[in-house]
Amino acid sequence: MLAVDTNVLVRLITNDEPKQALRAQQALDAELNAGRECMVGHIVVCEVMWVLKGLYAYSQVQCQATLAALLAFPGLRFEAIPVLLSAAKAWQNQGGDFADHLIGAQMQSLGCEAVLTFDKRASKAGTHRAV
Predict the structure, then answer these.
(1) Do residues 88 and 42 lie in contact, with contact meaning Cβ atoms separated by under 8 Å?
(2) How far apart are CA 131 and CA 129, in angstroms?
(3) How far apart are CA 90 and CA 100, in angstroms?
(4) Per residue, what are the HEC states of the chain?
(5) Structural contact between residues 49 and 60, judged by C-beta atoms closer than 8 angstroms
(6) pLDDT digits (tens, 9 = 90+) for 90-125
(7) Each residue of 75-91: pLDDT tens digit?
(8) % pLDDT > 70, the chain
(9) Calpha distance 94→101 (Å, rounded)
C-alpha cells in the first residue's frame, strides 16, 4: 500500500497544476486498477483542510464538502476512519478548526478525558479543557 501526501490531494482537488493533477489521478487509478488502496493519514487530512482554507480561500462549508468527497473517493483508505468521522461531525456541528476536532476525537479514542489547551475556541468543545 502507498500513502498519499498533501500535495497530491491538493492537486486533485484544485487542479491548479493540471499536469500534476493528471499525474496524481493516473497514479491513484493505477493503484485502484491493481486492487490496491492508498492511505491518507490524519496529518495529511489536516494539512489539506489548512491549505484549502488558507491558500485557496475555501470557506468552511467548501472544506467540509471537500472532506466528504475525499472520504467517498474510490481507492483512498483513511487512518482510523471512526475517529475521522467523529471529528468531521463535530466540525460540522460546532465549527472551529478541523485539526482541533481531530485532535480531540483521536485523544478520546485513546482513552483521554480531554485535551488541555490554551486555545479558547477549542476549549469550548467537549473534547478539550482550558488550562
Answers:
(1) no
(2) 6
(3) 10
(4) CEECCHHHHHHHHHCCCHHHHHHHHHHHHHHHHCCCCEEECHHHHHHHHHHHHHCCCCCHHHHHHHHHHHHCCCCEEECCHHHHHHHHHHHHHHCCCHHHHHHHHHHHHCCCCCEEECCCCHHHCCCEEEC
(5) no
(6) 999 999 999 999 999 999 999 999 999 999 999 988
(7) 999 999 999 999 999 99
(8) 100
(9) 9
Q: Are residues 100 and 45 in the same domain?
A: no
CA neighbor of 88 nearest in space, from 75, 72, 112, 74:
72
| Grid cell 473534547 in the structure block, residue | 127
Angle in degrees, 0-180, between the axes of helices 81-94 and 42-54, rounded to the nearest 10: 30
Residues 89 and 111 in one domain: yes
Q: Are residues 22 and 74 in the same domain?
A: yes
Neighbours of 6 (CB within 10 A): 18
